[in-house]
Specification:
alpha/beta, eight-stranded mixed beta sheet, 14 strands, about 15% strand, globular
Length: about 375
């Protein structure tokens, strides 16, 4: 195998890994031949859509790792920490390694520290001895400093990191597919869309009680029935839909309020994005679904609603710089939607600038 300049460590079947490499190739102009994906469990092969070589941890030639310019781990967990520790101990490669942080894993680590008083090994947090060694020895994090520095300082107060502000530089589809989807979506934007509020960008992020309280608040402020509601649900959890429909039946028969609700289930990525694109408002939980939110904002025809002081609000407002509707109560949310004055086109320009900035940062980072 020819020399590889940049190693990506992660599961070759994980969609975020493929989207990250797609961005490096199609937005940051890194030639596929310079990349190598090192995955926990696969034989030597080639990723057909990306034209990138793939090898397993077990079959990875140490010389390739010695000669490379950078090693990027997408997340840090019990699956990839052992190979990263080996690089640090045997190959003295700590300066080459960058960890692409995820919000979920940092939240788990903080829970561990809050429970034990320090960051320690905890199986429930997918954090073992190798993880602890790696996070204490690497120096570079691919993460926005305004959002993550305070968290990492709390976790490891004696450790200083270099922050590369280019986390999650991808949309929720590969680059070429996204541009085709966006073009098609914009060509249809002259048609009249239904007013539509999407409760959650994925299944199960809001409890049944919260969903019913939301709908009640929407009714009180006159957002329904003029707005249709979209709610992603699990196919097997039909009881949730039955209870919601019973509640809506009560609204219809007692209060003469006809609420139109759709229950899409798991679907293809293109169909999923089309559903989100049809909505004027996207209501997010406190943490998660950020890739979907960024992609949604990139289309420029809707507003994101996030819980006040949540991880999602901080990342969207302070790391990305977009305007969002912040809510503390469901009545606050209903009022904010009713009186919304956020400029979706302005947010679209801001999020596009953020994507382009991330591409430029990564282009320089992988220029070796």
């Amino acid at each position: 195998m020819e020399k590889k300049e940049h190693i990506i460590v992660g599961d070759h079947e994980h969609v975020f890994i493929k989207l990250y490499i797609d961005v490096l190739i199609n937005k940051c102009l890194v030639p596929p031949r310079k990349l190598l994906l090192v995955s926990p469990s696969c034989g030597e092969s080639r990723e057909p859509l990306l034209d990138v070589d793939v090898v397993s941890y077990q079959h990875c030639d140490t010389k390739i790792l010695n000669d490379c310019c950078s090693v990027t781990a997408i997340s840090l967990n019990t699956k990839n920490a052992s190979v990263l520790k080996k690089l640090i101990v045997e190959n003295h490669a700590a300066e080459k390694i960058a960890i692409h942080l995820t919000d979920d894993e940092v939240a788990r680590w903080i829970n561990v520290k809050n429970k034990h008083g320090e960051l320690v090994v905890a199986s429930e947090a997918l954090f073992d001895e190798d993880c602890l060694f790696v996070i204490n020895n690497v120096n570079t994090l691919i993460a926005p400093e305004p959002y993550f520095k305070e968290k990492m300082d709390h976790l490891l107060p004696d450790k200083t990191y270099r922050y590369v502000d280019a986390r999650d530089p991808f949309k929720s589809l590969p680059s070429r597919e996204w541009e085709m989807f966006k073009s098609l979506h914009q060509s249809e934007s002259i048609t009249v869309r239904e007013n539509n509020i999407c409760i959650g960008a994925k299944r199960g992020v809001f409890s049944l009680i919260d969903i019913l309280k939301m709908i009640s608040a929407f009714k009180k402020e006159g957002l329904v029935p003029k707005n249709k509601i979209t709610l992603f649900t699990y196919k097997k959890k039909k009881h949730l839909r039955v209870i919601i429909d019973l509640y809506l039946g009560m609204l219809r028969h007692i209060y003469k309020c006809n609420v139109d609700i759709a229950y899409p289930i798991a679907t293809t990525p293109i169909a999923y994005n089309a559903i989100l694109a049809s909505c004027h408002y996207l209501i997010l939980q406190g943490r998660g679904s950020m890739s979907s939110a960024r992609s949604y904002l990139n289309l420029g025809n809707g507003v994101v609603c996030v819980e006040a002081n949540s991880a999602n609000e901080k990342e969207l407002k302070f790391a990305e710089g977009v305007d969002v509707i912040s809510y503390k109560t469901w009545h606050d949310l209903a009022l904010a939607i009713k009186n919304n004055s956020i400029d979706a086109a302005k947010n679209q320009a801001i999020i596009n600038q953020a994507f382009n900035r991330k591409y430029a940062v990564l282009r320089e980072f992988y220029s070796g």
